[in-house]
Amino acid sequence: MQIICCSSDEQLLERLIALYGIGNVVGMPDVETLGNSSGQEDEIVIVDLKFHSLPASTHYTAPVVVLTAVPTFPEACDILQQGVRGYGNRQMRAANLKQVIENVKDGQIWLPPSIISKLIDVVGRGESTESKKIRDKVLSALSKRETEVALFVAKGMSNMEVADKMYVSLRTVKAHLSSIYDKTGVRNRLELGLALV
User: Fold this and answer.
1) Residue pLDDT, tens place only, 150-170
2) Structural domains of the chain, with CATH
3) For residue 34, is pLDDT > 60?
4) Model confidence band, residue 38 (pLDDT cutoffs 50, 70, 90)
5) Which of 12, 24, 44, 171 has the smallest C-beta neighbourhood within 10 Å, fewest atoms?
6) Run of H or E including 5
7) pTM higher than 0.85 for the full model?
8) Are the beta carbons of 63 and 41 closer than 8 angstroms?
9) Distance CA 145, CA 120 (A)
């Protein structure tokens, strides 16, 4: 996998190199040169909004992750409409950065939990009979503890927050989430949250 990083932040580049190796990370000084990228299947593009803006009219062939100083709901909605697959804080920990990249690589969308929660609230305002059926179907497939985890995640809580709330380990929460995804067919936190609206 090739990471194309449009940022002048040396620390961000160093974190990416530490995660994926120097041969798999390419620094690009200007976001405008993305149009010249090969668009290979195994590329992920990272755009750092501190140094670059995302051109509204450009559609990239590779999945795009946008990093910003303070993620906001309006900005998230705007960039999702432009086809961006991941969005988060540019100072996130290396483990979270890797999670964003891996999720986007797998065809998923990654957003901060607080934005997922707001998105679910907006979508859930007009609850229909169909959404109630989907919710009931998902919850009926889960054990009592999995249901608790799923409902906490749907509220936008992080794995650590869920672990603290339920007095279990982070590993236990991750195991429950894995089981929830297997049993329900949802692929990520956003899909789970939208199913439980």
Assistant:
1) 999 888 788 888 999 999 998
2) 2-111 (3.40.50.2300), 118-195 (1.10.10.10)
3) yes
4) very low
5) 171
6) strand 2-6
7) no
8) no
9) 22
